[in-house]
Write a structure and sequence with these properties.
This is DUF4258 domain-containing protein. There is one protein chain. The protein is an alpha+beta fold. It is built from 2 helices and 5 strands. The protein has helices at about 10-20, 25-30, and strands at about 50-55, 60-65, 70-75, 85, 90-95. A hairpin with a 5-residue loop joins strand 3 and strand 4. It is rod-shaped, with a radius of gyration of 21 Å.
Amino acid sequence: MDKQPKLIDADKLLYELALQGMMTDDIKRKIDEGEFDPDPIPLPTIKPGDRVHHDRFEANGIVKRISKSGKRAYVIWDRGAPSYVELKSLEVISHD
């Protein structure tokens, strides 16, 4: 299971810290400078038309579409039935 960081509202946090008397200049500065901002979500590099390889299936195929969640691809395999597979299990052989 992927551990996703919780996204919070910095203004609400600053307000609550001030109410509790826990606000320090150092905390406010770090929040204002974005020190606690989450890392950007990497965009998938696999797209429809890409030729891909799946190690576990030992198969190559062509991506036809990416799922709405952005986590799976529908692949037409060179051998076998088309299927949805997780993007993280695919390696791009060549782009369209």
